[in-house]
Design goal:
This protein is mainly α and 189 residues long. A three-stranded antiparallel beta sheet has the order 2-1-3. The chain has seven helices and three strands; from the N terminus they run ααββααααβα. It has helices at residues 3-14, 17-38, 71-92, 103-116, 120-137, 139-152, 157-181, and strands at residues 43-47, 57-60, 154-156. 67% of the residues lie in helices and 6% in strands. The longest helix is centred in the last third of the chain and has 25 residues, at 157-181. The chain has a single domain, classed as Peptidase M41 (Methane Monooxygenase Hydroxylase, Chain G, domain 1, Up-down Bundle), CATH 1.20.58. It starts with a helix and ends in an 8-residue tail after the last helix. The model is unreliable at 1-17 (pLDDT under 50).
């Protein structure tokens, strides 16, 4: 056996299709979890165990309650939640190809149509940019959740909170420090 052939066999063994698929599914579901959590959506349960209908799923609270703002803001929050899985998977797996017929994308498009009528594609593009910003900002959280899913296959909402809450507290402290360093501006009124 040549050296090149043995390297190829080792690479194939390391990147077994089911291993790669599992890693992708973990990032996909972690994307939903982290974006949902950061937008104030209650996360009840997440799993990467496949069913007849999906490779994994997230159970969440009402997408349209609990957030601040208008009905439009709630719809935009729900659209971001729907888009987050595919977008996280794409950030992790460079050869990812978007599936326009996926349940997540069809749901996001339906919400965008409800929000704007026939201008839904523009709303989707805008929400994709906003969701990508969130994912990049909180990518460490996505990785933490994905690693926990790969280790345990499923997480409860409490377990998700325990993983993400310490990071949220650190960010709040950092933001308070930044705010304390900013010069006070006089009130114009």
């Amino acid at each position: 056996m040549h050296k090149q052939e043995s390297t190829l066999i080792i690479e194939r063994a390391f990147f077994h299709p089911s291993t790669v698929r599992r890693e992708r599914t973990a990032r996909h579901e972690a994307g939903h979890v982290v974006v949902g959590y950061r937008l104030g959506i209650e996360i009840k349960f997440v799993t990467i165990l496949p069913t007849h209908h999906s490779s994994g799923h997230v159970t969440h609270g009402d997408l349209f309650c609990g957030g601040a703002g208008s009905d439009d803001a709630a719809l935009e929050r729900a659209i971001k939640f729907c888009l987050a899985g595919q977008m996280a998977e794409a950030l992790f797996y460079s050869r990812y190809r978007r599936r326009w017929t996926s349940v997540d994308y069809v749901c996001a498009l339906g919400l965008a149509r409800y929000l704007t009528g026939w201008g839904a594609r523009e709303i989707i593009r805008y929400q994709e940019r906003e969701t990508q910003k969130l994912l990049k900002l909180y990518w460490k959280d996505v990785e933490h959740i994905a690693r926990a899913l790969l280790e345990h296959d499923e997480l409860t909402g409490i377990e998700v909170e325990n993983i993400l809450a310490p990071n949220r507290e650190e960010e709040e402290k950092e933001m308070n420090c930044i705010a304390a360093m900013a010069p006070e501006e006089p009130d114009p009124f």
